[in-house]
Structure formats: structure tokens, C-alpha cells
Amino acid sequence: MVTNTADWALEEPSESIVPQYGHTFPWLAGIDDETYKLPLDTHGPQPDVIERLITVCVESRSTWTLGDLFPSVNSGVPFASFSQSVRLTNVLRRENIVDFGALAEHTLRYVMSLRNMGAKSVEELLGYLIGLAIRSPVPEMTATESRADSSRIARRRERRRQGAAETLTLSSQLLEDLEVLSHWNVARGAASVSLFGSASPAAEAPDYVVSAAIRLSGLTAYDWVQANSSFESLASLLTAHLRDLSDKELEILTRRIATNKADTLEQVGLDFGVTRERIRQLEAKLKPVLQSWIDPSTALGMRAMALRERIRPVSHIDDVLHDVPSAAGSLLHSELSAWLFLDKIDDDFESEDVWLATPSIQSAKSETTVIFDQVAGPNGSAARDVVRETIGEWSQLTDNRLTEWLEHVGLYRVGAGWANLKSRSVPNFAAAYLEHEGERRSLEQVDAAITWPHSILTLRNALLEDSRFTSVARGEWELASWGGKEYSGIKNAISEALADNGGLVSVQSLIDDLVPRFKVTETSVRAYAAAWPFASEKGIVRLASERKSVRPKPPGLTRNLYAAPGQTRLRIRVTSEHLRGSGSPIAIGAAAALGMTPGEKKTFVGDLGLVTVSWDNQPLMSSIRQILVSLDAAVDDLVFLSVAGDTVTAWTVEPNSDPLIALAETVGSRPTERLDADQLRSKIAQSLELGPDATWHDIEARSAARNEPELADALTAALAVIRDE
């Protein structure tokens, strides 16, 4: 235990300096260096400066605690002392947050996810705290607290920063280029790749690495590193930085930040004989130091970027350490392995159990389910080959690792395929299983496929009570959407027609024959003729040589996507990732509805902000944070983006007690008064890309095919009212 506490007192600066914003907000370094260097205006900063500070907090420092972001703000400052919006006041009161101390140990991301905490409320709170911090800035570090990086990479970094016009000999330039690019390639697990013949590094590489690659062409990183024995492990780089810390800083780091179970401020303060407030201030001063370690222009920063590139988008830790063994190893001052220690101080990748992902595990899980849902059937199933071709290609995981990852995400094995269930229930699994199999199955077969404990009697009762299933023979079941016996009868009839006509038959002749015989629609015949085991092309049907792998859903069958005259409307449920400015994947059907094709990028501009959609392997939508701030949207709010031509408008869906109005608003309509049943039916049909004569039964069928809970619930509630009336 530390008994001498004199050296824990705040030290006065050793010389007079002009205070800068970087002194009060050191976390600006490397993110907004222009604001960092601005002279501090204690009389009140300009609005654009406050906006820049808020943007850095939300977009780049959301995993920091409020205490780390604003170390100079006293814990006892009451929140009742400043003018607040009603919404913010209600949130603070409900959460019993009366002063800064109640928030200091919570991350900004936690605060953003508080129920009903809108984006505008977050900015209001941050603006108030920024003002407090400016009026009571953190004292400057003395010379004894400064850090000096003496590595060769750091000296080159300093030359680049100062723009020194230094002339190097050819051999010196070559040696420097070889060292820079060798460190980069070895760090990202590409030690055997040719230095001179390979493609330029990824865009995530530092500029000086890209420049070195341009000047080089033929030698491998492995050859260079082995010849010079100069490549340091991740553990040795981290240990070198740890040795620069004082004993008290090292204690705070290993007990509060780089640990699997952090001690409380009270525990650490008690051991050192100081207050929890003093520990919090010292911890806040330490955070920018840790961030400087992984600055992209440092050796450790380059190593962190390379590790993230190897991880992207998701990887198993064993595979990462196999490719990048230098990331393993233990540290002298910590119980954590080197890669896990780096995870604790690097916000741009995250670990969970045996999985690593960039930028977070949640973002990797979300993208996995979005890609899966695009190729899944209405009941949530997808064939294994289709999953391998889509999610496997996106993730670059091996077949075995892909299986482990899908189970970690929460998907279920269904036969030889997979399913994403709306909820874990026997009937949902049975529906996904039958959909995957594509044919009737016995009760015993369905029972054997379900992977969790249940009774066959429970299964039988569930199938009898659920309208999704039909018993087509003794003990055999199909999905009701297949049309019962008509489904297998139509398939047999098409097979017989092919056999009678030499393996080829026109779609029109099938329609003329089967529509009156089986009392089905022309659309149904076309659907069966185009589905496995048949193939339809240019009006001619034949037996398919193989099952089609991926068929993206059309806009009318895409979840959360609705049509309107001249408009495409996309409904979004706001997450904390949206509020912090992250981009998000969207369905292929949504991108197609916007008139896009693979390889395209489009920007849509509106009064509340702009949205950019790019379609590479998977369509991605840019940050919509500015739009959400303008709407004051909170986590779990429903927001519509409506695109017409090159413009975008947005609005929030407010709860409505009238089921008919609520249904209209669910599909993006904004009625000013209650619609009658026929008007409502027409609007809903149009939004789902059905014809104007579509019945409520047609709409229910389309809703079931979309497998969209919000739409299904709103439709059920509205139809109950309509039928009562």
C-alpha cells in the first residue's frame, strides 16, 4: 500500500504556457489536431468548436467514461444548475442522476442508450459538460510526466511531423523502406508476401507505409526481418511502453483499465490513501497517454492497425494467433496476453469469448443476420451452400469456423442448413425445417430435427394449432403456403408434361392446362415452374441441372421496405451504433429499389442531412447520425427514410392508439385523418407492391412472406378492428 501521498497532489506547470483545448481535452489528439491546438477560450467557446468537440466524443470516444472525457469536472456538480430540455430533465430524473458523480463512471455509449435519451439530448448534456470543463481545465503535465518514444519508428514519425527536408542515401532510403513495409506485412500476418511484387497496402495503412510500398518491388518481409532480427513481438512493444509508466500509473492501468475485472475507484483510492476523485482524475490523464501509444504513426499503432486488418470483419482468436504469432505472449506487468491487453486500450476492435471483430462484436453479428435474412425464406431458413456463398464469402471464415460463428450469433442448425428464428419455439423451428426441406415430412422427422428438449405430443399440438402447417396425409406435414396436396400435384403434373414433351415445355401451355385443373392462379404455376427441381428461361421450362444458390429478394418481399408513388421508404429501428455515427448494412432488395446495381454508390440529400449508399459485396448505408440528431431520435425509435429521385426526407413514427392509423404509419404512410377500410387496403397493397385489387388475404400472405414482426402485428390489430366494424 502507498503511504506517502504527497506526490499524488496536482502539480503546478513548471513554466507558463498558453492554454490550449488539448490541455483540457487531450483525447482530441490524433482525431482533431486543429481543435487540439486552438487557444482555450474560458469566456465561452464558439458554437462550431463545441460542435467539433461533441462530434469527436460521439463518433470516436463513445467507449470512454464521462469521467475520463471530463476529468476536471467535479463529481458534486449538480445537473439541476443548468437549463435543460424537458426530455433530458425527464431522463435524468428517471435514472436518479442528480450530479456529475452519478455519470462519471458510465461510458458515453451507455448514456446514449438510456431509454428515451434522444440524440439532441446527448448533445445538450455534452455541451454543458464541455462548458464546465473549459472553466476548470486540467493542470498541465510536468516534464516528469511527459512521455518520450525513442524507437526508430518514432524518430521517423517526428521527421514526418516536422516536415524535415532530410536527404537520405539510396541505401539508407532502401533500408528505411524495407523496415517500414516489413514491419507492416509481418504485423498483419503476411510475412511471406513479396515486398516488391505485391499490391499496395490496404487503405487503412499509414501514409508512410504506402509510400514505402510504392518505392519497393521483390523482397519478402520474412527475409528482411530474419536477416536483421529486428521484429519485436506485440508483448515487447507493450512492455516497453509499460516501463515508461510510473508505479502509480501502472497500478491504475492494470487495476482499472487493462483487466478483466476492474477494481472500483474506492478500492484503488483506499489502497493509495487518496480519494476516489483523485484516482478518477489520474485515470483520465492516463487515457490520452494510452491512445498516443497506438497512434497510427507509432510502431505499436501500426501493429494495432495490422492486427485489425487480419481480424476484419470477424475471426477466431486461434486463427489470428496462428497467422500472427507475434500477437501472443504475456506481459511483464499484467496477467493479460498481449492481444487482449491491446483490446482493452484499442476501441477499434473487440473480443468476446474466442471471437474478435472490427469495430465491434455487435456490428459483426448485425451484419451476419442482415446478410442471412436476405437469402432466407419467409420462415427464416437458408441452405448451407447459400450461407457459405454469402456469409462465408463476406467473413472469409473456413467452413468449420463459419459453423461456430453462426452458432455464436444465435442461428440454429436446421437439417443441412440454418435458420434465424423470430423466437425460440417448437412451431417456428418446425416451419423453418419444412421450408428448408422443401417437401412434406413425417411428424417423427420433424421431431428428430428439433435440437432442444420437447415432447412429440407438444410438437403435434403445436402443428395442429398453427395455421402455417397442413396435415396432408396420416402423420405427414407441409407448410400451408404450399397449397396442400395441390403443391405436390402441380409438381408431378409439370414433371409429366416434361416427360411427354421431350424435356421441354412452354410456361403458357402449363398455365392453360394447370390453372383450370388445379384451380390455382397463373402466378402460382409460374412460381412452381421456376422453382426447384425446374428451371424457367425465356418462357421455356426444363429440369434444372442444379439448385440456384442465391436469389436476392425483390423489393416487395424485403423487410422494412415500402413503395409509394415516386418514393421508396425504408424503416429503421434506431440503435446505439446509429447514434454514434456508424454506417449499417441494408438489404439487397432495398438497394435495388433505390435503382442501384453492384459497384454503384449514390448520395441522397435532404433538409435534415444526407445519406450515401454504396454497393460492393453488400449494400452499406452511411452514417445517418445528423438526421437522427435533427429528429432527436433515441434508441429503439422507428424512423423512416423516404427517397424520391436524389432527395431524402425523414420522420419518426410515433405510437398511435388507432390500429388503422398505426398500420398506415407502419408502412410509411402519414395520414392526416383516419382512412376507411378500402382506402387503407389500397395504400397497404401499394406499399407492398401488390396490385390495386389485392385483397386483405393477399396482403396477409405478402406479410407472412416478408417475415416482418412489426408489420404482422400492426396488420393483425387493424384487421381485428375492421372485421368488428
From TrEMBL:
Highest taxon of the lineage: Bacteria
Signal peptide span: none
InterPro entries per the UniProt record, alphabetical: RNA_pol_sigma70 (IPR000943), RNA_pol_sigma70_r4 (IPR007630), RNA_pol_sigma_r3/r4-like (IPR013324), RNAP_asu_C (IPR011260), WH-like_DNA-bd_sf (IPR036388)
Domain RNA polymerase alpha subunit C-terminal: 85-126
Domain RNA polymerase sigma-70 region: 242-285
A GO molecular-function descriptor: DNA binding
BP GO annotations: DNA-templated transcription initiation
Protein name listed in UniProt: RNA polymerase sigma-70 region 4 domain-containing protein
Species annotation: Subtercola boreus
